[in-house]
Fold:
Amino acid sequence: MSAILQSLRDILYTLPCILLALTVHEVAHGWMAMKLGDPTARNLGRLTLNPLKHLDPVGTICMVFFHFGWARPVPINTRYFKKPRRDMALSALAGPVSNICMGFLGVLLFQIFLTVFQAHPAQGFSFNIQLSVLTLLQYFYSLNISLAVFNLIPIPPLDGSRIFLTFLPPRYYFGIMQYERYIQFGLMLCLYIGLLDKPLRFLVNGLATLIFRLVELLPFI
Structure:
């Protein structure tokens, strides 16, 4: 029974963090594309913080259980771009960058609240509230950092492929992208069997350590 309660507790903390992380991630893609001349996401109502407009069922489930996943991609029409390859890479990069920024914000808030709570320790119900706030912030920054790292992998359909593959000659780019569905299935399989666990954990821990060190440099922490 305790294992079931722990799983439910994890989902309660994870779900709101996932909804916000994935939503901001996709809005960042659409916002950057719009700034570069493509109004497609705005015209289709995708520049919204309503998570129902962005969630991909499989990607969300992967986020809940593996802490790595994806949302429903924001449509981008490269014909609006002045420099299609460069602007596509920038639009793709905007998503992971937004998650790194939210990860930084999460770490900053975690450190601030931790300092405040240590200075004013509570007991009983108030202590449970303090612990819940810190736990929620831990989930928030860790999920955002994980999402950023995962999406920077240069494998379709992840953002990293849009960044890396745009530097390839078009015939190679389209040659790879035509197998996107098969590559996506292979990626899910690798996640399921844990093949990517160690390298992803190494990269996530490295980025988290860097963010913590940057936050510690702030004069008010």
Notes: Residues 56 and 72 are 5 Å apart (CA to CA). The longest helix spans residues 84-119. The radius of gyration is 19 Å. The chain has a mean pLDDT of 88.
